[in-house]
Specification:
Helices cover 15% and strands 37% of the residues. By secondary structure, it is mostly beta strands. α4 runs antiparallel to α5. The longest helix is centred in the C-terminal third of the chain and has 22 residues. It comes from Marispirochaeta aestuarii.
């Protein structure tokens, strides 16, 4: 056994090519004892002998001779690396990244995640760019470490197709309406209608520009806002609901704290309970209004089982119900003929006018002369505004409150700010404002 030869071994290197010739791996066996080390020229010669002519990592070559292992074991590293081909891009339709940015687990606010702000669907606006047609792009050839040229291929792109409620404008595909982005297989569209199984942690709070069909409950603490019509196939538990169009409910509407419902169109439901409702259109109900505050610019009609009690109801065009009030004498106020929005504004103007009057009643010093003049100007402007508004408070002096059955004590009827208090039960009647006497009168009793 030649132990002296083992102690004095010359350095050598083995070059190995990856199967696809994209890398050349060098395994260095360092010199031992008085053995001859390898130089950079030696390594280059071995690479050339192995057919490696491209992608040589010169810095690695310079450092490799200095790499040693205390036990004399082999050291390996990549000495050359090829350049892959970059595939050419075909002409294709690239969809906006926003369309795939779902927020399934809520939104962070102040360091905490609000799970009510989850978004399991994407809403787009009318005219919004959904995608853009991109022209074809050239590829770039590659090369292996042995110098073999790699021709570029063609990238695979998903062939999306625009569908319903989209249109092309130049290179862009845009939404023709506001609504929910829908992708079915390769075809995308915009749906005006959003169907929901409920409003909860899965859906998050709903803010939708189109119509909504609701098939489940709105859980406590969640809100719903839609820019079109809302149809609820179940009783509507309203915490905070806003509807720009019409609202139809296949059941009653029950308010949950804060119990606010605002509707830009008409409302149709079976009953209303514990709710604050503002509505621009008419209201049609089958049953009762209980412990609620209802305000509408239209007409309010309750059906054959309709009863209004322990509530405040304002309807500009008039009110019709089966019964009004309660045998126990619970307070109930119904008001018609007046615009509730302008009444509220008029009250705010009068309150501000009273405040200014109190300030002007104080004896001002000479230093307050300019302030006094400003207050008088503001008071005069307020009086002019209040006077103009007063002329618009009562758009429907012909509005009536019609009750087909009993009107109970405890009921107050107001028509154009004229009051009528019911002291004893009235079997039925239609209440109207007599233009000659300026008093509320009743017929049909």
């Amino acid at each position: 056994m030649d132990t002296m030869g083992e102690r004095n071994r010359d350095a050598r290197i083995m070059i190995t090519l990856r199967e696809d010739e994209m890398e050349a791996l060098g395994t260095l066996y360092p010199a031992l004892g008085e053995g001859r080390p390898l130089g950079v020229e030696d390594i280059q010669g071995e690479l050339e002998a192995a057919g490696v002519v491209a992608g040589i990592l010169q810095e690695t070559l310079k450092q490799l001779p200095d790499k040693t292992d205390p036990a004399g074991k082999a050291v390996s590293c990549v000495l050359a690396r090829g350049t892959p081909a970059e595939d050419a891009d075909p002409a294709y339709l690239k969809l906006s990244q926003k369309l795939f940015d779902l927020r399934l687990y809520g939104k962070e606010k102040g360091g905490r995640v609000d799970f009510r702000e989850a978004r399991p669907f994407v809403v787009v606006r009318k005219g919004e760019a959904l995608g853009r047609y991109l022209p074809p792009g050239p590829g770039t050839p590659g090369i292996t470490v042995t110098g073999r040229i790699l021709e570029p291929g063609i990238k695979k792109r998903i062939p999306f197709e625009p569908g319903e409620n989209t249109f092309r404008e130049g290179d862009y595909i845009r939404a023709a309406i506001s609504g929910r982005f829908v992708l079915q297989r390769l075809r995308f569209s915009v749906s005006e209608v959003l169907e929901l199984g409920g409003v909860d942690f899965h859906s998050g709070n709903i803010r939708y520009p189109g119509d909504v069909i609701l098939r489940g409950e709105i859980c406590d603490g969640f809100s719903l806002s839609c820019g079109g019509d809302l149809h609820s196939a179940v009783p509507l538990d309203a915490t905070e609901v806003k509807v720009k169009g019409d609202l139809s409910v296949e059941g009653g509407i029950i308010g949950r704290e804060p119990g606010i419902l605002k509707v830009g169109g008409a409302v149709q439901a079976r009953f209303i309970e514990n709710l604050e409702l503002e509505c621009r259109g008419s209201i049609r109900l089958d049953g009762v209004i209980l412990q609620s505050r209802i305000s509408t610019l239209g007409f309010l009609q309750c059906g054959e089982k309709g009863r209004i009690f322990n509530s405040t109801v304002q309807a500009v065009e008039g009110i019709e119900t089966w019964q009004l009030g309660h045998p126990a004498g619970r307070k109930t106020l119904v008001r018609c003929g007046s615009d509730f929005r302008k009444l509220k504004l008029y009250g705010e103007l009068k309150s501000r006018e009273d405040d200014l009057q109190r300030q002007l009643g104080k004896r001002p010093s000479e230093a307050d002369a300019e302030t006094l003049l400003q207050l008088r100007r503001e008071l005069e402007e307020l009086r002019d505004s209040a006077a103009a508004l007063l002329r618009e408070l009562n758009p429907r002096p012909d509005a009536r409150v019609t009750v087909r059955d009993t009107i109970y004590p405890g009921v107050t009827i107001e028509i154009c700010q004229v009051l009528y208090r019911v002291e004893t039960a009235i079997p039925r009647g239609s209440f109207y404002l007599d233009p000659e006497s300026g008093e509320i009168k009743v017929t049909g009793t």
